[in-house]
Write a structure and sequence with these properties.
The structure is a homodimer of 348-residue chains. Chain A has 348 residues and is an alpha+beta fold. In chain A, the strands form 3 sheets. Chain A has a 5-stranded antiparallel beta sheet with strand order 7-3-10-9-8, sandwiched between helices. A 3-stranded antiparallel beta sheet of chain A has the order 4-5-6. In chain A, strands 1-2 form a two-stranded antiparallel ribbon. The C terminus of chain A is likely disordered. At the A-B interface, strand 4, strand 5, strand 6, helix 9 and helix 10 of A face strand 4, strand 5, strand 6, helix 9 and helix 10 of B. Chain A binds a DNA duplex (30 and 30 nucleotides) through helix 3.
DNA sequence: TTTAGCACTCATCTCTTACGAGTGCCAACA
DNA sequence: TGTTGGCACTCGTAAGAGATGAGTGCTAAA
């Protein structure tokens, strides 16, 4: 049985109509399509063939057909005509990012929310820190008698700070001593290296002072870990409630989305560009009724994070894929400006 | 018609049974209650009286009765026997806070999430900054050639930092100059005072350098505003999906909860202790199908924030009210340790 | 290969009926 | 006077019976 041109046109029409209406598509509806100028009976023959080939499913005998996962896959991989973004749409996305001097953390959190609002899907955004990123500088700023602000600056430009309340008075002498000590021990090491064992070993070197300075050492460890682990943001999970696909599964999927442990690995390991997981293609059972679109974004040449879209299998791929692609690109560009230094000159 | 003891017992039984089962309560069920040793017919007479008095509602003629808002109100204000927390329950809540050296921001975010998990309700946590809080110290730490970390330390102990990328090389001389300038102009002023106009006026004083340093001045403004505005955290909105009360209104209420503009004023202005808004008592129309429990938490003597619980009107008040109370108290204690300085000695 | 015709399937809607939980009211009783 | 048993009544809910109609598969003719 050949997957000929007319079958392709019919499959496309079924996918697109079903995405639009959510109703199984029948032969009569299809025969009225501009691209398909044959009678309902002929369409039925073709539909029977497409069913045999595994591209269609039938909710029940007397209903029309809906696309199977294979059907969606064939549509996305070959049949779909991607709708390139209009200038207005590009402007719309650009406007979402129209903020002066963005804080990188907030930028991503806001981006996740904005993308959800824009697409009507739930979103996940995640940053990843390359293994070669090192500690570049550690600083300690006395803020108050016994309070200091600890800063860790990583070689990829990320800065994290933490307020530490200590049990003793911190004067500039103590601060200077600890600053030098911490920079000597931590700078140049990759974030990946800075494990609990590493920190214990460093702490031991403080000898009698190790107890006193321990909160600061632990603080540095926590900050390094925070930078290395990256961030995980959610947006618009409640959007899923608008689809009746989720009427009885909304809680389950909303819970899943907030679990970084589960979703992180799935969205984190993908090639560049937009990757699509349709329904049962997902490895997580809770996601099998959903589709997941994932796009990486880069700072310069370096993979820097992923942003993902979660929605019903019946989502408008031809619109969402290019939108997500443009969005991720834009996000990367903006982050590149923020972290303009250190991209590519030390990855090796 | 007297609201006598038996009527009170019957109302209590109706409220408690309805909270437990979600079904309208009938006279037969009530007559079997240990505290109510009369026949169903007598109970019916009493129920008719309670209905007359406005304490009960009737979904339809042939159903049992459910409490009206007045009924819940009477129950909560006088009839309810608050279940004091067991030691185990106290330990359970204590365990939620069992984290060494908490970051105040994270503490509250985690608390909101933990409370939602613990109570099965959606939660909102909000910090408020008293009007008398001033800027205590501003610091600028060069992190990289053209990158600095800006720190604002407020008199209530809150520290916020922000990374600023500048268009020029920052050496220690420049940093020292700006640090002195900023501290001279901002320190001692209340956060409330630091408006856009104030910042413009300060900027003007930099004369020719005002353009150069503007990102830093704006950064200080943003940080001050961030401290003054406080934080707004949500937790467990998806918990509401477990109640069929929300089966068709979940989206609406979840959206509302995320709007600080709308919910902030409602939960922010309440006396100390736990305040309860039952259904229609709420000023926001979207909340009229829900109950809202709000508790303030304090640092020392000073009002510092509020934590609220949102759930179906049919919620277990006798359990949740003391739990929320204890939780807020615990939260205040923990924050007091974090911000142990400056409480009460400068409010005036 | 395409198409018209036709019998068949099956979800959905509507109408009817039966059921039962719960009520209100009344008369009798302590 | 308060309490109780009895009884007719209400009304939501569940179950069953048609009727409807969208859509199919198959066959035979063009």
């Amino acid at each position: 049985m050949r997957f000929d041109d007319r079958k392709k046109r019919i499959l496309s029409a079924i996918v697109e109509t079903y995405i639009r209406t959510g109703e199984p598509v029948g032969s009569k509806t299809l025969s009225e399509f501009p691209g398909i100028c044959v009678s309902p009976a002929t369409v039925r023959n073709e539909m029977a063939a497409l069913f045999e080939m595994g591209f269609l499913e039938q909710p029940h005998t007397s209903a029309g057909r809906i696309p199977s996962h294979l059907g969606y896959r064939a549509y996305i991989d070959g049949l779909m005509r991607v709708k390139p973004l209009t200038e207005d749409e590009k402007d719309g996305i650009d406007a979402l990012f129209n903020i002066g001097d963005p804080d990188p953390d907030k930028l991503l959190a806001d981006a996740a929310e904005a993308l959800a609002e824009y697409t009507g899907c739930a979103t996940v955004a995640m940053t990843t820190t390359p293994h070669y990123v090192t500690v570049e500088h550690i600083d300690i700023v006395p803020a108050d008698e016994s309070t200091v602000v600890l800063l860790v600056i990583a070689s990829n430009g990320v800065v994290k700070s933490k307020v530490c309340r200590l049990g003793f008075r911190v004067n500039t002498g103590i601060a200077d001593f600890f600053r030098k000590f911490a920079n000597d021990r931590f700078c140049g090491h990759t974030l990946k290296d800075i494990s609990a064992e590493f920190v214990t070993a460093v702490s031991v070197q403080l000898g009698d002072y190790s107890n006193v300075f321990n909160p600061l050492i632990v603080g540095i460890y926590e900050l390094c870990k925070e930078v290395y682990d990256g961030q995980y943001y959610l947006g618009g999970r409640e959007k899923l409630l608008t689809y009746n696909e989720y009427s009885d599964r909304a809680l389950e999927i909303m819970k899943l989305i907030s679990k970084r442990d589960e979703l992180g690995p799935v969205i984190g390991n993908n090639p560049s560009g937009v990757t699509v997981f349709i329904g049962k293609e997902n490895s997580l059972s809770q996601l099998m009724g959903s589709s997941l679109l994932v796009a990486r974004f880069n700072i310069g040449e370096n993979d820097c994070g992923t942003i993902g879209l979660i929605g019903p299998v019946r989502m408008d791929y031809s619109r969402l894929i290019p939108h997500l692609e443009y969005f991720a690109e834009k996000l990367g560009t903006l982050l590149s400006i923020t972290y303009q230094r250190k991209t590519g000159d030390e990855n090796g």
